[in-house]
Amino acid sequence: MTDMLAIADNDDLALQTVRVDLGARSYDIVIGRNVLDQAGTRIVNLKPGARAAIITDETVGKLHLDRFRQILTDAGVETTALTVPAGEASKRFEMFERLCDDVLAARMERGDIVLALGGGVVGDLSGFVAASVRRGMSFIQVPTTLLAQVDSSVGGKTGINSRHGKNLIGAFYQPDLVLCDTAILDTLPLRDFRAGYAEVAKYGLLGDAEFFAWLEDNWQAIFAGGPERDEAVARSCQAKADVVAEDEQEAGRRALLNLGHTFGHALESAVSYETERLVHGEGVAIGMMLAHEFSHQLDLLPKEDVTRVERHLLDVGLPTRIQDIPGQLPPAETLMDIIAQDKKVSRGNLTFILTRGIGQAFVEKGVDPSLVRDFLSEKLAQ
Amino acid sequence: MTDMLAIADNDDLALQTVRVDLGARSYDIVIGRNVLDQAGTRIVNLKPGARAAIITDETVGKLHLDRFRQILTDAGVETTALTVPAGEASKRFEMFERLCDDVLAARMERGDIVLALGGGVVGDLSGFVAASVRRGMSFIQVPTTLLAQVDSSVGGKTGINSRHGKNLIGAFYQPDLVLCDTAILDTLPLRDFRAGYAEVAKYGLLGDAEFFAWLEDNWQAIFAGGPERDEAVARSCQAKADVVAEDEQEAGRRALLNLGHTFGHALESAVSYETERLVHGEGVAIGMMLAHEFSHQLDLLPKEDVTRVERHLLDVGLPTRIQDIPGQLPPAETLMDIIAQDKKVSRGNLTFILTRGIGQAFVEKGVDPSLVRDFLSEKLAQ
Q: Of A183, B80, B229, B359, which has the highest C-beta tally within 10 A?
């Protein structure tokens, strides 16, 4: 038993903690500028004596790996670093196999830690490795993108892509700790920050009109890195944590988190996940617009709400229309095929997240596919 | 919603049901001669409308696949069959990837079923596929070997091998139903039946002296296929289910199930898992003997108990000594290296299952490795 190390007392550190309440698998998300400086002591306190296999990608590795390993080493945590190429292509079987083998080659035991230092790709891939090596090792996430901080690091979804689609192979596996250093986001390209922001806006749109209004007033400060950024990350994590705690295995309410994602995934797939054309958050932004427009077409939602959503997304610089994606897109039929193979399909019916207003999204099972096809044809023709 | 189909009322079917109690993940193991005839109706009742991807191996497929698919088809269950080569070599990444892809190619959804028809290899591999495709599909096991019926189909351990060792990559994943048809064991080669019997004997040895005594009296009837066989399978499943219900993630008591397995795995690894020389159950039989002898050497166990264990294992035709393994074996040092890399190692200490008598096994953490090495050297020299 190691004595608890004192967490550095630093007035500059104004931290927020979101507790994800999942019984024995509950964990904390600690959010704040420079929380990374505490990573070593926090890990030692949580898992005394454990070693850590840090999985990162080449881009994040160059920026943050040396400093991060030093922080862990200083606290007495022995580390091994495993680096994968940056980008979605790393979420594949071959990389999963290589990482599992490398973690085992480092003689990591069940109580040792797989630590994801990176964005969503690194987190998803590392989480599946952590879930699978020795049928489950400890898992800590240090998300380095806004998208990963507010989305992929909360909720335990891990996995890789298959040639049949994104995230089709994986596990529900909860981390033991998530550290969201909002200062690290200063190094993020603007396009990636915006893409992550699409998910922040999503939490307002799906269930919290007051939060959406707050975002309309405060988005500049969030982009600039003020305390509002921490607040936005914390409220987003809390929103997701609340849904996940209620419905860990995505039987019902958790599907709300897919607002904008059915259309968004289809568009990402339609451009073969070429991030030069479309990154995930941009697909979500366009997908959320489509979900609101489709809901309006179904007479669920007043036109003013659609306009308000579009205005905010345009304000922050996000795309809102299919036509904003550069290059040729496939016809509506092809998009429908992609949607049908999407993992949110249940027994041939289409499940969509629709909305009755800002903050009033709901799960609609059994949407008539022909309505969706007609809607998409119309949008593609605009 | 489909109406419940009537389960065929057949006086020949004297079934036993063992309930594995794991909260929301509880499931039944139904045991008896020709329970397979009810597979279709039971699946329809449990998962109305679900389709099934049957995973089997070439050996079992030749014997049972056509009949089994017919039983499912007759009940209205749509099936796809996926066949892997027979043998441990199929528990590898490449096969895991191929099966995941094939299940997705068959457009299986989350509510559809991965059905394992085969022995432990098929069950372990299929279970990991079921756990991973779409982050968890339904999973049903139809174990066709005695070993799989009493061991690998209970408890939710699934996985594949890595070049660093057996079962090092996988998931804890519970099936929705297990059907143990004891008549199907009539087609099993005697050597395989004996190997499975080693695990049956293990349940007596680890915690139930009365069951061990019953086995000493009834083993011939178990081998011959009488109602005693059903009884032995049911009591073994119940014994394992009790331990698993108490300790699903193998934090403590579940380790008792590894009686004989640390030595056994080391021997299997030492012969490179060449089943011509040693199959798993034979390794367990020799491993159980070694565990009893080692416990005796530590003054934990009277010599008479060691003799009694050996007599019973010899009676049923199982090997009991390292020297029973044909061919050359590596020195004790090499076996120790294998044991150290075994997944039951915790922070450099050796954890062994020792025993104070028939039915009195216990978990001993922190066994001095030099004692084990000396014991193995001695045994190898005999």
A: B229
